[in-house]
């Protein structure tokens, strides 16, 4: 429950001058008070912080609504091609994010759509019928997504599952009421909870239901909008679906929306009565697939039996797609049975499974990875056979981040210092940051950049003290690793460095050490035991290190609870060192690495994901690159990785591992970390020990440079200047031109109160 505002809080003015499109502050205050009274039914005596937030959110939404409606009118009049992209200790707690409602969204019950499950397939003279299905209704909720100073407000449409009909009250008299309630809950469970496991596939029926539910609702909506010609029209006037790929692009963001391929085939063949060949041509030209991981355990493989029960018509369609696909491969490679097995959509193992990545590749006209090294890896390894058949399908689209949120909003001090030198146009055209190279030796600019960083650190230190009750040294290096907790991201390598640094300080307490505050944050998937134990190890190391008087404030270890975007917006601008230390060849791209770079942190990292391109753009000498490259990892895989040889050869590594296994960090439970120790010693797929020595040596270089603030800040400026490539504006423009076949528009439309 939010606390009521104090008198001091109430006296504070809410700053509104920075809001785009708000010309009249007094009008905004009037609307704010109107929403507080009439929407929330509160006055200032009883209003909570949440009430003030909701009143402000509703006020801002009022300003967006005119632009939102005008944007839709503009799209219907101009009829542009549109992309449906992204169809898709610590104690853990559920995030009930809709408990208090969401002021930004608008329910659209008039566009509710039925989604079918189960049933059976009838082959009739009139065509194929999917019958006796269970129906769940998809209720759309729209959220406005405003553009940057262009009066465009796009729509993000999400779907909520609703039971199809109200209770039949006569059932109450025959004892069926409770069952009716349970059935209703069962239907609505589909959108009640998100499966949070990432980089690990778990084939559960509810997850498959969720994936199909979103796909089916979205595709019905796409086709409804395609057929309607005018804004608000309910008449279907565009009936020739052969032009669908000219007006619609569907980007399959990983394999989760892969069912869009068989579902669109079902609509085109069964409902619109197109021939298979015509329908398939439309599907392939409409769909494109982005791959996000090469980890085999993350790739979706659904049991055929599950499909047969839940989506019988889609299973038939997938079988037909596979039959035609394999006929083509047979013609290209006669007699190559092993190739057919490798390329089939159906994996014939003990349990027959559908390989969803293969379905995505076969059913799409373009396939891309999300960093150059990742796109090369998928062509050379997981999708090698498909690349050999259709090399023209494969592309790269390096990820990007929006400079509006990840610089202007979260780090206004730095944004302003940059604007003073090169103007504000870089906010729309991030390549202009290259101009900062002219100021790399400018003492005033160096001082200004360093000053903003120090102010951000002071702010974050105060935040930590208030919310975590931890006092840290703001003059220490803020060494930060924030990302999902996963073995491949190697938070354990960071832990080994912390322990090594701790042992060195203990051994030579009078030496002049570079003080560090090491912060690690991120969430573990609920079923991922190893990840949870990694969090426990981090907090346990912190308990020992932070309470050792010999160490003092020269080394602090903090686990950042509940890492999320709002915390990222505080920690990233305050960071000095960004840890991007995954095993080479495992991180598809990363985007946190780009956010740190843009906000003036230096990177210590492996040549993995987008780190490779960051080093190219900023100059490798301006990053701290260490460790095995992809070819080294591949060579080690062939030869075999022997963790014990490193353990026996490197005394500091042995000492650190012995401390973990001997209970030094868990005195009350000496064998607490035995599973982690066993994994690291016996079956570590991500080869932590192989990069340990190089990582420790690289960290020594980091500490040495940090003692020279001017040279450190010069490298920071090189990094900021090299960030232009990593704008999401560039990424999306490339998707538009090279995959969706459309020219991105920089058009600004008239504001609602301007004459049209």
TrEMBL record:
Query: What InterPro entries does this protein's entry cite?
Result: Glycg_phsphrylas, Glyco_trans_35, Pyridoxal_P_attach_site
- Any idea which residues bear N6-(pyridoxal phosphate)lysine here? 595
GO MF terms held by the record = glycogen phosphorylase activity; pyridoxal phosphate binding
Keywords, A to Z, come to: Acetylation, Allosteric enzyme, Carbohydrate metabolism, Glycogen metabolism, Glycosyltransferase, Phosphoprotein, Pyridoxal phosphate, Transferase
Q: Which PROSITE patterns match?
A: PHOSPHORYLASE (PS00102)
What's any one GO cellular component for it?
cytoplasm
GO terms classed as biological process: glycogen catabolic process
Tell me yes or no: is Calcium among this UniProt entry's keywords. Answer: no
| Catalytic reaction annotation | [(1->4)-alpha-D-glucosyl](n) + phosphate = [(1->4)-alpha-D-glucosyl](n-1) + alpha-D-glucose 1-phosphate
Q: Which cofactors are named for this entry?
A: pyridoxal 5'-phosphate
Please indicate which superkingdom the organism of origin belongs to.
Answer: Eukaryota
Gene3D superfamilies on file: Glycogen Phosphorylase B
Concerning its family, UniProt says:
Belongs to the glycogen phosphorylase family.
Kindly give the PANTHER family that the UniProt entry links to this protein.
Answer: GLYCOGEN PHOSPHORYLASE, GLYCOGEN PHOSPHORYLASE, MUSCLE FORM
Subunit architecture: Homodimer. Homotetramer; to form the enzymatically active phosphorylase A.
- In UniProt terms, what function does this protein have? Allosteric enzyme that catalyzes the rate-limiting step in glycogen catabolism, the phosphorolytic cleavage of glycogen to produce glucose-1-phosphate, and plays a central role in maintaining cellular and organismal glucose homeostasis.
The protein's name: Alpha-1,4 glucan phosphorylase
Q: Which organism is it from?
A: Sparus aurata
């Amino acid at each position: 429950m939010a606390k009521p505002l104090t008198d001091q809080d109430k006296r504070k003015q809410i700053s509104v001058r920075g809001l785009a499109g708000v010309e009249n502050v007094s009008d905004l205050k009037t609307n704010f008070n109107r929403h507080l009274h009439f929407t929330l039914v509160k006055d200032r005596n009883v209003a909570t912080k949440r009430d003030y937030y909701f009143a402000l959110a509703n006020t801002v939404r009022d300003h967006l609504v005119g632009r939102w409606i005008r944007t839709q009118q503009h799209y219907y009049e101009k009829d542009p091609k549109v992309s449906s992209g992204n169809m898709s200790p610590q104690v853990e707690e559920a995030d009930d994010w809709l408990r208090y409602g969401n002021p930004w969204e608008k329910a659209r019950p008039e566009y509710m759509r039925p989604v079918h499950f189960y049933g059976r397939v009838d082959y009739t003279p009139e065509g194929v019928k999917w019958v006796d299905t269970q129906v769940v209704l998809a209720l759309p909720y729209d959220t406005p997504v405003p553009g940057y100073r262009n009066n465009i407000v796009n729509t993000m449409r999400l779907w909520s599952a609703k039971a199809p009909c109200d209770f039949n009250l006569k059932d109450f008299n025959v004892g069926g009421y409770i069952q009716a309630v349970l059935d209703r809950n069962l239907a609505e469970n589909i959108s009640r909870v998100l499966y949070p496991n990432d980089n690990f596939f778990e084939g559960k029926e509810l997850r498959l239901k969720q994936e199909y539910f979103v796909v089916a609702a979205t595709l019905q909506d796409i086709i409804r909008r395609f057929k309607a010609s005018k804004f608000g029209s309910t008449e279907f006037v565009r009936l020739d679906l052969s032009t669908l790929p000219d007006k619609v692009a569907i980007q399959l963001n990983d394999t989760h929306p892969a069912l869009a391929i068989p579902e669109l085939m079902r609509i085109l063949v069964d409902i619109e009565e197109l021939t298979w060949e015509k329908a398939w041509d439309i599907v392939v030209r409409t769909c494109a697939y982005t791959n996000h991981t090469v980890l085999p355990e993350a790739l979706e493989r659904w049991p055929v039996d599950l499909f047969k029960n839940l989506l019988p018509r889609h299973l038939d369609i997938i079988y037909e797609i596979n039959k035609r696909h394999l006929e083509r491969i047979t013609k290209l490679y006669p007699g190559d049975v092993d190739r057919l097995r490798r390329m089939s959509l159906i994996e014939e193992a003990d349990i027959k499974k559908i390989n969803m990545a293969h379905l995505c590749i076969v059913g799409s006209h373009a396939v891309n990875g999300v960093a150059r090294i990742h796109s090369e890896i998928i062509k050379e390894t997981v999708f090698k056979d498909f690349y050999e058949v259709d090399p023209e399908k494969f592309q790269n689209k390096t990820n990007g981040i929006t400079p509006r949120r990840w610089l202007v909003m979260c780090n206004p001090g730095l944004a302003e210092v940059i604007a003073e030198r090169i103007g504000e146009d870089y906010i729309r055209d991030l390549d202009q940051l290259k101009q900062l190279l002219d100021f790399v030796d400018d003492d005033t600019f160096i001082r200004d950049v360093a000053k903003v960083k120090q102010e951000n650190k002071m702010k974050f230190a105060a935040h930590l003290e208030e919310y975590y009750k931890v006092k840290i040294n703001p003059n220490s290096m803020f060494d930060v690793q924030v990302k999902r907790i996963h073995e491949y991201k190697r938070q354990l390598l960071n832990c080994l460095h912390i322990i090594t640094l701790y042992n060195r300080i203990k051994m030579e307490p009078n030496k002049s050490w570079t003080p560090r505050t090491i912060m690690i944050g991120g969430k573990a998937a609920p079923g991922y035991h190893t990840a949870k134990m990694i969090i426990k190890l981090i907090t346990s190391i912190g308990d020992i290190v932070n309470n050792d008087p010999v160490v003092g404030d020269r080394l602090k270890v903090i686990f950042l609870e509940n890492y999320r975007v709002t915390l990222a917006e505080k920690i990233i601008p305050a960071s000095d060192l960004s840890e991007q230390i995954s095993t080479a060849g495992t991180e598809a791209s990363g985007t946190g690495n780009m956010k740190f770079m843009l906000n003036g942190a230096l990177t210590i990292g492996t040549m993995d994901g987008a780190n490779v391109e960051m080093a190219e753009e900023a100059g490798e000498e301006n990053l701290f690159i260490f460790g095995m490259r992809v070819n080294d990892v591949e060579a080690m895989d062939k030869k075999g990785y022997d963790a014990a040889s490193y353990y026996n050869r490197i005394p500091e590594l042995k000492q650190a591992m012995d401390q973990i296994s001997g209970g030094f960090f868990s005195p009350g439970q000496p064998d607490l970390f035995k599973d982690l120790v066993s994994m690291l010693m016996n079956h570590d797929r991500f080869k932590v020990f192989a990069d340990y020595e190089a990582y420790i040596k690289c960290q020594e270089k980091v500490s040495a440079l940090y003692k020279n603030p001017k040279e450190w800040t010069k490298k920071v400026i090189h990094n900021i200047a090299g960030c232009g490539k990593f704008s999401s504006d560039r990424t999306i423009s490339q998707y538009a031109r090279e995959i969706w076949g459309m020219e991105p528009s920089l058009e600004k439309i008239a504001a609602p109160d301007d004459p049209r």
